[in-house]
Amino acid sequence: MKVFAIIPALEAANSVGRVVEELKKYVAEIVVVDDGSTDDTAQVAQKTGAQVLRHLVNRGYGAALITGSAYALARGAEAIVHFDADGQFTSADLPKLLAALKYGQPSAALGSRFLGTAVNIPVLRKIILKLGIIFTWATTGLKLTDAHNGLRAFTREAWVKFNLKQDRMAISSEIIQEIAEHKIPYMEVPVTVTYTADTLRGSKQGRMPAIKIVRDLFIGKFLR
Length: 224
Hints:
About 40% of the residues lie in helices and about 20% in strands. By secondary structure, it is α/β, with parallel strands linked by helices.
């Protein structure tokens, strides 16, 4: 099974190397999308064996996911996995996500820190995520336990159905909307997310206040 891991990265030179090394235990094809970094993110990723794509300017987390996923599909990916560059995810969770997919069919595996473990999660972050779950249920009808987890996997047949337009963090909600709209079979998978001073400070890849995410989602919906 040809699986590609897609890693959006911005100013991640201090962490992306470790992330790539860990992922190499489980995935042969690793694609880092350097989204306009001014540090050595691209060089570190390439040195550790990742395929590196570069945005000359910062276009956002969503744009990086779309770029990396399109690259993978063009090279015959049968499944794609999304993974963050800051080290908050655990690579050992990948086999569980991939096992949940139905190959040859549209399907999705969505990581859930609330079915699994959220290490050192700040109280405010937990409240915001729980509100996001309610918003997702209200707008899509999907009752998820974790609606904004960047650790997820899709079969090729699922991803090609999506019409994604959000360039920044709102893409996480847009993906859930697409799953609901196209009635893609999905499974939530328990995963571990670890919060540290670095991951809380270093999630520079297009982070924006929740109200801006909601605004972008509604604008995008009307412009479809």
